[in-house]
Design a protein that fits this description.
The chain is an alpha/beta fold. It is built from 14 helices and 14 strands. The protein has helices at 21-35, 82-95, 112-118, 153-156, 168-188, 197-205, 255-264, 282-291, 328-335, 348-352, 364-376, 380-386, 396-413, 424-537; strands at residues 6-11, 39-44, 54-60, 63-69, 99-102, 123-126, 191-194, 214-216, 241-246, 271-276, 297-301, 315-318, 340-343, 356-359. Strands 3-4-2-1-5-6-7-8 form an eight-stranded mixed beta sheet, with helices on both faces. Strand 5, helix 3 (112-118) and strand 6 (123-126) form a beta-alpha-beta unit.
């Protein structure tokens, strides 16, 4: 054991901002090193940004944590950030570690090993994931299918996340620079560790490392007992299956697929899924809850591993879509003595061995069939529970001892004195091309703005002309309406006078008619009298 060793761990994120398997491992490793007298510290990435790059310092459960902030977004592309490099180099010179242990380059700078070498510090890397071979980190395409094509700027450009204004040429240029940085980093490493044979095979298959370069050292946690000390098996008193799934709830971990598989099973089977953990994406969690059959999926929320012992589970399921290099959740399931259902992604099937059933990653029907077997097939749970895992967890003291040997070898070999660097001219040209594209975009945007401004001015002038025409038309119509109103009034007066004249003439006619009627009556009477006298004389 090496006394009072100085080591700096570089990791993509750390508590309380990020929590996960790698973060827990780094915390346990640094804590154990400090407990025995070593000077261990943590350089962590962060999603704080974009902002001026800075390193914040804090104490997290007794561990000195230096958080590099301001590099977001799209840190998975390992962008060239000289401002971040300067801060990391200052930290390395200040802490003067004897070894830099890189667990991830994500959210940091793509030149960690080169910076350490320039300060005379050797670098050991543990490749917990496949981010060194994929600018999307997990080699999962948008449809969650796994990509086995070696990384290439031209091939990878359409797949990576980007800002809306970034062109294919700009992204490809950046990925080409990323490839140069990582090629240099790999050439500097004093040791490259992987947690499993599955991880070694994949990285060699992709051409990231030559055969014989990678050393397999399973990772471990101090609070994971071996399967021999597992809790006693649960004896069910009723039909059914209580199934556990825990960790970060993510599409890549197969959480959504597992909920869909449970939903497809008949309710009469009594399969109940217990989810422990949270989803970093609120939209995914909302969709997960909306799709979960009521009473058959239980969301327990945040948890600590010891909490799992309080729930009487029959089995656990981890149908990951991503390539798993180890899986601490698998270690926890081993410690609980639980039978398993796992996908064939990465190290999961080899580590599970006879302890569980293996299904093809992404196959919902195969996953549902496996759960159906666990619920219905007599003796299957007991048979799986009695079987040993293919690769049980390594005891933490053994892991620490083997890692010490790696550190010691790296320190004795010392850092390369003249590490191959990405030429400054190459970096400057890349930045110049980026700036030129930004300038061209700005000029194009200015021309478009001027064009739109001219079109807008023309529209405003046309609008003003049309408004004036409408105003003039309104005034003309108003004048005409006023004239018509006067004519209508005059006609009304003439009509009233004519009506009066008609009434007077009618009255005069009626008077004359009455006089004529009276005259006729008098004449008729006179004639009658005269006729009567004439007749009487005769």
């Amino acid at each position: 054991m090496m006394p009072e060793m100085r080591v700096l761990h570089a990791v993509h994120g750390f508590a309380p901002e990020f929590r996960g398997g790698v973060e827990s491992y780094v915390a346990a490793l640094a804590s154990a090193q400090r407990a025995r007298g070593d000077d261990a510290a943590i350089l962590s990435g962060s999603d704080v940004g974009p902002s001026p790059v800075r390193i914040s310092e804090e104490d997290v459960s007794g561990l000195p944590v230096f958080r590099l902030e301001g590099l977001a977004p799209h840190t998975e592309r390992l962008r060239d950030r000289p401002d971040g490099e300067e801060l990391v180099l200052e930290l390395l010179r200040r802490l003067a570690p004897e070894v830099l242990h890189v667990h991830s380059w994500l959210r940091l700078v793509p030149s960690l090993a080169a910076l350490a070498a320039s300060a005379g510090i050797p670098t050991v890397a543990t490749l917990h994931d496949v981010a060194i071979s994929c600018p999307r980190v997990h080699r999962l395409k948008a449809d969650l299918s796994f990509c086995r094509v070696p990384e290439s700027p031209g091939l990878c450009t359409p797949c990576v996340r980007r800002d809306p204004w970034e062109t294919d040429a700009e992204v490809e240029d950046e990925l080409s620079l990323r490839a140069l940085f990582l090629e240099r980093e790999r050439s500097i490493l004093a040791a490259a560790l992987v947690p499993s044979e599955a991880q070694r095979r994949l990285l060699e298959e992709l051409g990231v490392f030559s055969p014989g370069t990678l050393e397999v050292l399973p990772v471990a946690l101090p609070d994971h007992p071996l399967p021999a000390t597992a809790a006693a098996a649960r004896t069910r008193t009723s039909p059914g299956l209580d199934l556990g799934h825990w960790g970060n709830l993510l599409p890549a971990k197969g959480t959504g697929l597992l909920v869909a598989a449970v939903r497809s099973l008949p309710e009469s089977l009594g399969v109940v899924l217990h989810l422990f953990g949270t989803a970093s994406d609120p939209a995914f969690e909302n969709a997960l809850r909306a799709s979960a059959p009521p009473g058959r999926v239980v969301f327990h929320g945040p948890y600590d591993p010891p909490d799992l012992t309080r729930f009487p589970l029959d089995a656990a399921a981890f149908p990951s879509m991503a390539h798993e290099s180890h899986s601490f959740t698998l270690d926890e399931a081993f410690s609980l003595g639980l039978p398993l259902v796992v996908s064939d992604a990465g190290a999961l099937p080899g580590r599970t061995g006879g302890r569980g059933l293996v299904v093809r990653a992404g196959d919902e029907q195969a996953l549902a069939d496996a759960l159906r077997r666990l619920a219905l097939e007599p003796g299957l749970l007991a048979k799986l529970r009695a079987s040993r895992p293919g690769e049980p967890p390594m005891p933490f003291p053994e892991h620490l001892s083997r890692l010490d040997a790696v550190y010691e070898k790296a320190i004795l070999a010392r850092a390369p004195e003249s590490p191959p660097l990405v030429p400054a001219r190459t970096r400057l040209l890349a930045l110049q091309r980026r700036a030129s594209r930004r300038q061209a975009d700005a000029l194009e945007s200015r021309e478009a703005f001027d064009r739109l401004q001219g079109e807008a001015s023309a529209l405003v002038r046309a609008r003003d002309v049309e408004l004036q025409r409408l105003y003039d038309t309104e005034a003309s119509l108003t004048g005409r309406v006023t004239g018509l109103d006067a004519e209508v009034a005059a006609l009304g007066e003439r009509l009233a006078r004519a009506t009066q004249d008609c009434d007077a003439e009618r009255h005069a006619r009626e008077t004359t008619q009455g006089q004529l009627d009276a005259l006729r009556s008098r004449r008729s009477v006179g004639l009658a009298l005269r006729l009567s006298r004439f007749l009487g004389r005769g």
